[in-house]
Amino acid sequence: MVGQQIIGNIMEIVVPYLKNKFRDWKNRKTQAYSAADEPQWVTDFECEMQTKFSLFWQYLEIVLQYGFVTMFVAAFPLAPFFALANNLVEIRLDGVNFIHNFRRPAAERAEDIGAWYGILATLTTFSTIVNAFVLAFTSELIPRLAYKYYFSETNDLHGFTNFTLSYFKVSDFKNASRPDNATLNGYAIQDYCRYPGFREDTSPYRRSKDYWIILAARLSFIIAFQAFVLAVTFVVAYLIPDVPKTLELKVKRENFIASEAEKNHKEKSGKRKPRPDVEKTHTHREPDDGPVDSVGV
What we know:
mainly alpha, 9 helices, flat
């Protein structure tokens, strides 16, 4: 969790820097500009070019870190702190890389983070299950609660350690592992030895009834934990929407204005004004007195 992050950050900043320095040393004889008057676009063009998988590795690193933190936080409570410290440092290192060591990438439009959102959602659900199992089976939380509210007559933890220890007859040891029938540090060897576990006191030392009761309590805790986390998730998602109310109102207002403008445009283009009547000029003869004599004309 810590060593891999430190090594990764060092490699991210050192490798591009060394590549750029090696490229500058290799091409110093063919450069048309000196280091003082070299244009910025030439400096940017000579930087390390990013591949099409550069963003993929950035996302993968964050997703792996998120998985470590969410799934094993119960086993390593300092994981969120080291992840926060690593992200603060990596933001600065990525800024240095994108400004000084990498060539400016071509911008592409994207609606969201794509398939990574589904991966993060799956990790979140899976991490809830993992943490529930870790709390239920690797800690004494459930046995303590079961003893306090079910087995104890006084509803406290008095006698809890004795409750978790089972009996084993020393005489049931095999010859190869049987202890000597002598004193150990001045004390006589007991007829029984105690060990953690919920088993019967006689051979073949099967699981006791208390074990199955506690196992049922562990599984019940996992189901209740899952239901509680899902309920909290739905409440938080409802209280904190993806789009703020103010932005949602502005978007609705813009859509309304656009629809009204389109409606007015359709009305104006659909109902054209009638063209003004143009009086037709007809050429007509004035009434004459009679036929005209062609000869006289």
